[in-house]
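Reopening: Magnesium-protoporphyrin IX monomethyl ester [oxidative] cyclase still failing for me.
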Amino acid sequence: MQTTLPSSKSEVKETLLTPRFYTTDFQEMADLDISTNIHEFEAILEEFKADYNRQHFIRDEEFNQSWDNLDRDTRNLFIEFLERSCTAEFSGFLLYKELSRRLEITSPIVAECFLLMSRDEARHAGFLNKAMGDFNLALDLGFLTKSRKYTFFAPKFIFYATYLSEKIGYWRYITIYRHLEKHPEHRIYPIFRFFENWCQDENRHGDFFAALLKSQPQFLNTLKSRLWCRFFLLSVFATMYLNDFQRTDFYNAIGLDARQYDIQVIRKTNESAARIFPIALDVDNPHFFQLLDECAQQNNNLINLDKQNISGIARNIQKTPIYVGLTFNLLKLYFLRPVSSQDIEAVVK
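Support: Ran it again with your exact input. Result attached.
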């Protein structure tokens, strides 16, 4: 990631927990048959065309002020939040734009849906980048496009991961929005006022990927697919949990407890996923969040070791048992018995 300051550039280290850029097998995507629920795609396309947020992302007078009143730590954490969010939105824009181009002939309805989703993601990324401008910063998106490494994901993995990222994005945004609506004294910057409509874009994108998954029953109804659903649910939840554990001060600044916030978001996303996935994670198992807490602490220990002024060999020796413990805890989380989606739906109702 490149952060452009008035006269210099600095690099941010890429890790497994940073937002990634993806590519996929475009021919396999083009060959997918969506005829089983074509009417659902047509309805979703009409929703995208309505463009409910066309006039939403317009900066108003509240942005036109100095933000030097933010203390240094809060300012740095908020800038990091903007950077990560902008990078994630821009990653979505690039993937959706390329998919719309590759599928234009073979699957025009799906291609147009991807095109309109790329419109939304570009709008989000641009709005976030303008916000960074209030802090005399901006992401060099052109440099980011050329220099960032791309991770290959098969189409079904794109569907699982992106469906969950859009749905968890919805619950993250709406939870923050509803909290700040009740406690406006914690709204440290006006961008949070835009989250209610913003998260509806995330929700509609998630519905599109849900339709793609439903059109391919082999991605949902086999033993292998059930294992992959568990894997991606855990991956998305653990990534958020470990990231937010490092940023508790940011959540404190907007009046939230990071752990309770993550627990609520995970529960809501798990319920949403149960409407599509055949299984959900047993987040009510008393070991579930206990193990996530241990993973977050182990990840934090790894980060602290990187900050210490010790040799690479000594650092790696100290890291090894932590990596082993972290891996073991993630495996224990994965092998916690899942629950049937039907059971989740019955409880929610």
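Residues 220-348 form one domain. If you still see a failure, please send the error message rather than a screenshot.
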